[in-house]
């Protein structure tokens, strides 16, 4: 027997946010082309090529500097690996090597550099800056909702600035001092991805904070929801739906199946959204939420009727 509650709709006011997505469910505002401009992508490719060339040809295999620079570059690449999946709308935890790479990165210790050296504090500060970004990305991934809502509660850090530590890195690099040249390139690489990270956080801001979602009057069931609006929507467009039902945050996929013009109404259209691929758990949460609201409204109505008789 079909679950009749699936087709039961109830009027509620809930915090709800939705946005149009492509057929793969990826946010149209959060994509690589918008977060990494073409010229920036070319520049990053050139930086990677220069860094690899210097590390492979300019240092002896036994060099401590080579080991440190390799480690710093590797950690930037790990940061980028995490960042890329979020940009693409993927949950990195679903990758077969996620746990392995997480464990391997945690084994890395801060570089041992001489405090007497003027670049020692620079390298330590650079390492810590990369660590902060990696920790924030992992925190966001582990605290994500269904691997789709990535929360970024931390304030965006300013890009790493070598002038906080030394004043002549560029001059040393221009004079052909190889460690200075490598550091300059690594800093440029990190700065470029820090800019991308900041753009990503800004793009996710509207969906990462449920307290910022508007309260919407909707007619909802485990099958979908409808609402009245003055905005226009394309029929059969796909969307990601983010809603808060009491203490539960739900992320659902939906498709617009109704776009009806209204007459004699303050709103121009009635929009109907059908849930797609809704899990049984989410369907039960929605149904129980409806039942609780229905019971609460019924009890309030009875209470009001009793007061009216007094």
Set down the secondary structure blueprint.
Blueprint: E1 10-20, H1 32-35, H2 38-57, H3 64-87, H4 98-106, H5 120-142, H6 169-174, H7 178-208, E2 215-221, E3 224-229, E4 238-245, E5 248-261, E6 269-276, H8 280-309
Antiparallel strand pairs: 1-2, 1-4, 2-3, 3-6, 4-5, 5-6
Helix pairs in contact: 2-7, 3-5, 3-7, 5-7
Give the biggest sheet: 6 strands, antiparallel, barrel
N-to-C CA distance: 45 Å
Structural class: alpha+beta
- Mean pLDDT level: 87
SSE pattern, N- to C-terminal: EHHHHHHHEEEEEH
**Rounded Rg:** 26 Å
Backbone shape: elongated
Name the strands of the widest sheet in spatial order. Answer: 1-2-3-6-5-4
How many structural units, i.e. domains? Answer: 2
User: How many strand segments?
Assistant: 6
Percentage beta strand: 15-25%
How many individual helices?
8
In helices, the fraction of residues equals: 40-55%
Poorly predicted parts: 1-7
Q: Could you describe the 3D structure shown?
A:
By secondary structure, the chain is an alpha+beta fold. The protein folds into two domains: 10-23 and 222-309, Thrombin, subunit H (Beta Barrel), CATH 2.40.10; 32-208, no CATH class. It contains eight helices and six strands. A hairpin with a 7-residue loop joins strand 5 (248-261) and strand 6. The protein is elongated and about 90 Å long.
